[in-house]
Input
Amino acid sequence: MKTGLVLEGGALRGMFTCGILDVFMREGIELDGMIGVSAGAAFGCNYKSRQQGRALRYNTRYCNDWRYCSMRSLIKTGDLFGGEFCYHYLPANLDHFDMDVYDANPMPMWVVCMDVDTGEAVYHRCDTAGDECFEWIRASASMPMVSRVVSVGGHNMLDGGMVDSIPLVKMEQMGFERNVVILTQPRGFVKKPNKMMPLVRVVMRKYPRVIEAMKKRHIGYNETLEHLSRQEEAGKVFAIFPDEKLPIGHVEKDPEVLRKVYNIGVAKAEQLLPALREWMGRCTNQP
Output
């Protein structure tokens, strides 16, 4: 029986996820496959490359660098989170991404993107690290209205969270019968319709399928949460939520706030470790 890892996005709420994954690495918690969307993909790749602490390190070190995330970057490059800097220059020159370990790790990793021409989800398996892999991850995390469309693999794409924010069902369809799901909103959260839709319709007018996807996003999100709850009750999902709304927004310039949210994730993982090990043991022993 295969056990998967599902990582929700949420921009810098993903620091919570980083804390959890670092505890997983420290404690030797290994899963059979992983799927990440948006920040879940951008930060989750460090779990496959086994680089404990890397996500916290580069986020706190470069959060005030305009090339990393800023209005200046948006105006100058078209990306709020600098595409070239974050996904190519930084991992190659400033905080080394261990491509050899990533490639050697047999755990498959999928990323979720949204095809802007069809408005549908694209699921891509990233087996080999490198520029193309990083472009897929960049596409998965490229938020509409503050990012350029990313062209890779024959698709024009943006943030996969617009069409599959919590890709649990996809993981189940791929044969992962049991899944650890890390979310970045507290239990009981209900996504509301997007209040920015009038602006979305103007800014994204070239992409009517994207507009439609963003209009319906809350419906699919809430349906997935209902499915997750049923699977959790059936013992097929081990869900990890923050206890309350995380004290961080999509953009954060204070390293101490980033570290605080990361530490919330660390504490939550440490709290749940005994229950997680017990659950994983039951999964292993079941036919």
Notes: The first strand starts at residue 3 and ends at 7.
